[in-house]
Amino acid sequence: MTQVKMGMVVDRIGVVESYSVPVISAAAKAANHDVLLVEYDKNPKAAAKAMKAFNPDVLAYSVMSPDAEKYIEINKHLKAETGAYSLLGCSPDIFPGIHPKGRR
Fold it and tell me: What is the pLDDT of residues 19-70, one digit of tens each?
């Protein structure tokens, strides 16, 4: 299997859905993938710099509903810096404007 570099992103440590981030990270590491966790809110420029230096293949997020729009903005910033693919783990009903018509 090809090794993937996964950048896990949280807005603020301690104020995120606390179960999925370590589980996803541990599963990726167990499968021999590289994982970097960054905290965005404290210093967005430093988070972007660290992520750019890591050069991830994938930016991964586990998002709680109230924070969804903020994570879309965070993803736009980090995606522009890294060019990585994005995986946002959240309910698809959070983003009704993104869904193609008839696919809810």
Answer: 788 888 899 999 999 999 999 999 999 999 999 999 999 999 887 777 778 8
- SS3 at position 62: strand
- pTM of the full predicted structure? 0.79
Dist CA 10 CA 19 (whole Å) = 12
Angle between helices 44-54 and 68-82 (to 10 degrees): 50
- Give the pLDDT confidence score for residue 94 in this predicted structure: 55
User: Could you count the other beta carbons within 10 Å of the beta carbon of residue 12?
Assistant: 11
31 by DSSP, 3-state: which? coil
State how far the Cα of 23 lies from the Cα of 72, in Å rounded to an integer: 22
